[in-house]
Each structure stands twice: as C-alpha cells, then as structure tokens.
Write a structure and sequence with these properties.
This protein has four helices and 35 strands. The protein has a 16-stranded mixed beta sheet that branches. Strands 3, 7, 8, 9, 10, 11, 16, 21, 24 and 25 form a ten-stranded antiparallel beta sheet that branches. Strands 27, 28, 30, 31 and 32 form a five-stranded antiparallel beta sheet that branches. About 5% of the residues have low confidence. A hairpin with an 8-residue loop joins strand 7 and strand 8.
C-alpha cells in the first residue's frame, strides 16, 4: 500500500468533516462506549515509555487485511457521526471524534478518557460511524481500534463546535486557529530525515485525554510514542483561539544513540512561487503551504530564509545556542497571491516554535526535498541538539507551538514580504527583496546602510528604493556566481549600526 500523502490526508480530513450531515444517519446513535475504570497518573505515561525503551521494539498489531486493503474511495465511505462524539452533551468545552482504521492506517491506536483520576478505555465500535450501502463487509475482531482522533471546540462561534486539531498517522498532528484551514503538520519527533539509510517514523501508539471542566478553555492530552530507536511520553496542553497554542513536554528514552534527531519538527509543502515560477504550466502564481523559515536566534538576530523546491535534496544548518524560536511561516495572505479558490493557500497557518527551557547548543535544520507535485510534503524544519541523545537516559524537552497567522514575536524591525530572483535586461543576475513598512524606515532612505554579502562569487552594492505599492522599501542588488557552484546570499538594512530589518538569506543554485 502506498504511503499517505499530505494532500490525501487533508482531503480525508475535509471529507470526514463534511460527511456526517449526509442522509442515512441513524436517529439512535449509540455514543462512545467506555471500558472499566482504572487509576491514572500522568507519570504513568513516562514510566510506560521508560519500561518500553528497556525492551526490544515490537511492531504494533495490524487490523485485518480486508481493512488494510480498502481503497481510498471505500475508506471515505466510513465517516464518524458527530452525534457520537466523546463528551457531547456533557457541557464540556471539547468534543472528541475518531477515525476508522485501515487503508493508510493499518495499526490502531488506543485511547483512554480520563476523569476524576480514573482512565477508561474508549472501545472500538463500528456503530459510531455511518457508511454507505455499498461498503464491503468488513470483519470485526479484537485487533480493531481507531486510527486517530480530532478535537472540536467553539473556535469561531459560541455554541458551534468545529474541528481545530487532529492526531493521525505516525507522530503527525495538525491544528488551526480562527479563520485558518489545515496546512502544515507538526511531528512528535523526526529521525534520520533525508539520511541515505532512510527515515524512521515512530508512532503515537496510545492517548489519554483529560476531560476539561465546564468553562475550561484548554484540554490536556497525553501520548505514548514508540519506534525502533526510541520511546517517548508527551503531554500537550491545547488551547484553541485566534492562534491555537500547544504547550508540549516530551520525555524521550532512546534505545540507541541518536545523532540525527529532530525536536519540535515541522513538515510542510513548497512547490513554486515567483522565484522559481519558470517551467510550471499552472494558472496560479504560487503554490505552497509555507513561504519561508523564520528564525530568532540566541544572538537576537531575525533570519528569514525563503523556501525552495530544489533540483536536488539540500540541507541548511543554522547553528545556534539557546534559540528564541523558529518556524515555517506563510506570509502571503492575499487571495491574489495564489488565486486558488479550492486550496486557499492564503489561509494556511504558520507554525512557530517557542522553546521552553534553555535548549543549549545545536542547529535549526531545514531540509528541502525536490517534488514535482503539490500533494507531497517536501519541507522539514526542526531543532537538532549538538549532543547525541544517549540510551539509558531520559531526555526532556519542552516548547510551545503557535498555529498562527504571524509569529508572536516583537515587531521591532521591518520584515521581508517578498523575494524576486532573475536577470536584468543586461543579463545580470538580480535579487529584489521587499521589506514591509516600518517606523524605523526613515523617509530619507539615503541614511540607511545596506549590507549585502555572499559566501562565494561577487555581489554588487544594493540600491534601496521606496515601493509605492506596499509603502515599504525594495532592495535590489546584483550577484555573479562561480561557474557551476551555489551561493549563500545575505542582505540586511541597518541605521547608525542599529538593526532595522530582518536578515534575508537565500541559497541560489545553478539552473538544472
């Protein structure tokens, strides 16, 4: 069975959200069935992870073959009836719905509802789903379980519950804030991303959901991660809103020494924009879930790195110590930036990672993977600690995720809004960078110091002009690469030795 693509996952999620209103839903919905109660303490999840890590990895049991062999269209004919949602009608600020197993999700998860210090397993029940009449007969046995869950709350309108977070597939999860639609994903962890020996995908195998009190705005979710190389205990405090936030604490237990490990990992898609528009016969001016990587490093610099769809796999390492944050962001917010009424890329969230404790030395890593279709995720960003994670030790990391329109950082300098690359009429290579309006940009631009540089080749002095359409400024400069070699370009605006703009970074590569 082929792997689930990002676009298929988003299509499945959208389809499942729409289907419960179709004709044929029963009037006597059973609701979620719960098993017998047992005591629960949050530290039990950590101890489960510690115990698992001391044993050899055991792959999870899979659902029956008939479920795994469902086609995409058949799987879409099984949808959760929202009237069966966990805690529906209980006055809780969250309701939980579930996904059927099968197709791209062969291994079921286990879910527990936690209330009053007691946990009760959420039992699998095909009756909580609705189906069409032509769904093939499927066996029901003890191996069955749900493949994922999604949270519904009063995100936009009081009294109206809508989906705002999904956990399904390996350690992937997604969320949205108000006015947003699903785009990029987060991951519990990234292992060996882009490595020749292949990437490893640990899975969230078990969840515990704490019942929030009436009027409580957040929900607490615990998750157990397991994979060949490590286990982990995760705690999420999820708060929906204009920006949906997740406070994450992860306690990791490696089975082996882990060097190529990615913490607070994000996965997104970049197909093309005006920097690489040539060669794409497409009616849209741009296609991407995220336009750039934003980093606020430990030295206080703000770095903006536009994303690329490269001809070959490429890595970028932004070495740092105690970073203040990073994230894959979508800055193009006008419909005309994409002109796509279906995908609505202008409404996709950015995902900003705010470290908790001092993360120490390491690097923000950006992986850009060639793709010829927009259905595939090809961008990964994460924090890689300098020191490998050692087996036999607990490694704890905490951070806050912001699913946002803009990164929640001080707006104390002009940020990059657009990048244009190409040649002038004379044949010279040109970089044109648009900066947003900002109070620190003076009326007299002659007093602004323009800094441009590259790691090889040559760059010209920059020309700074007012952009009459945006009210900001545009920086143009020429560059000449060495034959057949890439260039790392850098530009920034300063005034009296004070920073007044982000640092713009760009990796130029020779045309394929």
């Amino acid at each position: 069975m082929s792997a689930l693509t990002r676009r298929q996952a988003l299509a499945l999620s959208a389809a499942m959200a729409a289907l419960p209103g179709l004709p044929g839903a029963r009037a006597d919905e059973p609701g979620m069935r719960l098993g017998d109660p047992r005591p629960f303490r949050p530290d039990m999840v950590v101890e489960r992870a510690r115990t698992l890590a001391a044993k050899p990895y055991t792959p999870p049991t899979q659902v029956p073959e008939a479920w795994r062999n469902l086609t995409y269209d058949q799987y879409r004919k099984i949808w959760f009836d929202t009237r069966n949602a966990l805690w529906r009608g209980r006055g809780r600020p969250v309701q939980v719905e579930f996904f059927a197993p099968g197709l791209y999700f062969p291994a079921p998860i286990r879910v527990h509802a936690v209330e009053g210090g007691q946990m009760r397993p959420v039992l699998f029940d095909l009756a909580v789903f609705d189906t069409t009449d032509n769904l093939p007969d499927l066996p029901i046995d003890s191996t069955l379980g749900y493949s994922g869950l999604r949270l519904h709350g009063e995100l936009e309108t009081p009294g109206t519950f809508q989906e705002y977070a999904v956990f399904q597939g390996a350690s992937y999860f997604r969320a949205i804030g108000q006015g947003q639609i699903y785009g990029l994903s987060a991951r519990g962890i990234a292992l060996n991303t882009g490595a020749p020996e292949g990437e490893e995908f640990p899975e969230f195998r078990e969840f515990w959901i704490e019942a929030p009190a009436p009027g409580q705005s957040d929900v607490i979710l615990h998750a157990l991660l397991d994979g060949p190389s490590l286990t982990g205990a995760y705690r999420f405090r999820i708060t929906p809103g204009a920006t949906t936030t997740m406070d994450v604490t992860a306690t990791l237990f490696p089975r082996v020494a882990l060097e190529n490990v990615g913490l607070a990992a994000e996965t997104s898609m970049f197909f093309f924009d005006q920097t690489n528009r040539a060669g794409y016969e497409d009616f849209r001016p741009a296609v991407h879930d995220s336009g750039g990587l934003l980093i606020w490093n430990g030295a206080g610099e703000r770095l903006w790195r536009p994303l690329a769809n490269p001809a070959e796999l490429q890595f970028s390492h932004f070495v740092d110590d105690a970073p203040k944050g990073f994230g894959l962001m979508q800055r193009a917010r006008a419909f005309s930036d994409f002109a796509d009424l279906s995908a609505r890329y202008h409404q996709r969230p950015g995902l900003w990672v705010e470290p908790g404790e001092n993360w120490g030395a390491g690097a923000v890593v950006l992986v850009e993977i060639p793709t010829d279709k927009e259905i595939y995720d090809n961008i990964v960003a994460y924090w890689r600690p300098r020191a490998p994670l050692q087996p036999g030790q607990a490694h704890e990391v905490s951070y806050r995720l912001h699913w946002c329109a803009e990164a929640p950082i001080p707006q104390d300098r002009a940020h990059v809004t657009n990048t244009h690359m190409g040649r002038s009429f004379s044949g010279r290579r040109i970089a044109a960078i648009d900066f947003a309006p900002h109070p620190k940009l003076p009326e007299d631009l002659s007093s602004v110091q323009v800094h441009t540089s590259a790691n090889r080749g040559t760059v010209s002095e920059g020309i700074l002009q007012r952009n009459p359409e945006t009210g900001g400024v545009r920086l143009d400069f020429g560059f000449e690469p060495e034959e057949g070699r890439s260039m790392e370009l850098r530009a920034q605006l300063r005034m009296e030795e004070a920073t007044i703009s982000e640092v713009w970074l760009y990796r130029w590569t020779p045309p394929a």
